[in-house]
TrEMBL record:
Residues 1-18 form the signal peptide. One of its GO terms (molecular function) is alpha-galactosidase activity. Keywords: Disulfide bond, Glycoprotein, Glycosidase, Hydrolase, Lipid metabolism, Lysosome, Signal. The keyword Cytoplasm does not apply. Its EC number is 3.2.1.-. Homodimer. Residues 312-401 form the Alpha galactosidase A C-terminal domain. Belongs to the glycosyl hydrolase 27 family. InterPro entries: Aldolase_TIM, GH, Glyco_hydro_27, Glyco_hydro_27/36_CS, Glyco_hydro_b, Melibiase/NAGA_C. GO terms for cellular component: lysosome; membrane. It is found in: Lysosome. This is Alpha-galactosidase.
Amino acid sequence: MLSLAFLCVMALPISVFGLDNGLALTPPMGWLSWERFTCNTDCVNEPADCISERLYKDMADRLVEDGYKELGYEYVNVDDCWMEHDRDQNGRLVPDRERFPSGIKGLADYVHSKGLKLGIYQDVGTKTCAGYPGSYGSFEIDAETFAEWEIDMLKVDGCYADPKEMDQTYPTFSSFVNKTSRDILFSCEWPLYQDQVGIKPNYTQIAKFCNIWRNVHDIDDSWQNVLSVVDYYSSHQDELVAAAGPGRWNDPDMVLAGNFGLSYDEAKAQLMLWAVMASPLLMSNDLRDIKKEFSDLLKNKEIISVNQDPLGKMGKRVQKNGNIEIWTRPISPQDKDGKPSYAVLFFNRNTIGGPTNVSVELSSIGLDSVNCYNTYDVFSPDHSVKYCPKDNLHARVNPSGATMIIAKH
């Protein structure tokens, strides 16, 4: 039975609520367990890889000691399968006692001691996707519990929930979270579940209650899956660009560099695309044994700078010629007329053959300032070349790869 408080909140007009938490002014960065470790609860046979406090403490250590934290990767995010299958006698969620012996508050204390932030997972429905207790009917007590545990990010899934009710349930949960004494970044999957059943998401409404939101299916450790996510974004880019901005971001899901399914060039392309799309950079990999080339890629300061640009403008695809795509994102600084600088991404979807040489006139892709631009490759920031709007910008792009050029005033 739903609580009286829940019913009262559900009866109020949605317009009385608003997400005004001052968080995610740039896309959040960090680490999330799901794609790499899914719902592995076998701590007997796989003690280092199961969903447990050990795993999250290990990743917190790596974020700090290996230099990710200083570049902005600050969230350590727990996903599904962290809890017991039953609430306690007071209706509160209970972390698995064997896998989280210190409790979530103890884990949060550890993560905070490293100067990092802790995220956790729940569901707006009656159960989580893996069948653990969901928050439906318990939004207020769960929001209070997460605040008491000092959680910093809450990812709210939509399994075992009615997409037709999400225009009420997500705002209700968000409002209870926002009423607590703690600033908690609210991540939702509201548009994803509505889109799947043919309900057109209202992004103006969603942005009032979610800091970030998933639009499309879970990402998988395969290049074809990454391409399907990119295709969704390019085909819906006008409404997605209009919805995004400081405090509210589209979330195409996790960054896969360092796993098993993507080559180096594919991982580089994904990271660059996510940067141009102003997406959260939430890695899902094993930072304890990641290869150096992938670690160095994830720490590329120029790519991160594009992702974290303070203008808060989401980029989009501006040209497509066969399997070659050009994406641009407006970035700072602006010139005296308010014209932005740009990140220009050349994306090669060819899977065979050698590198492709690409050339494009700057003005034809929107770089039409009266001033010229200083341009450089994100992997060679010290080598700058001046290009004016009528000049052709050249790039060489590997198959299933990308090249990012910064064009600054």
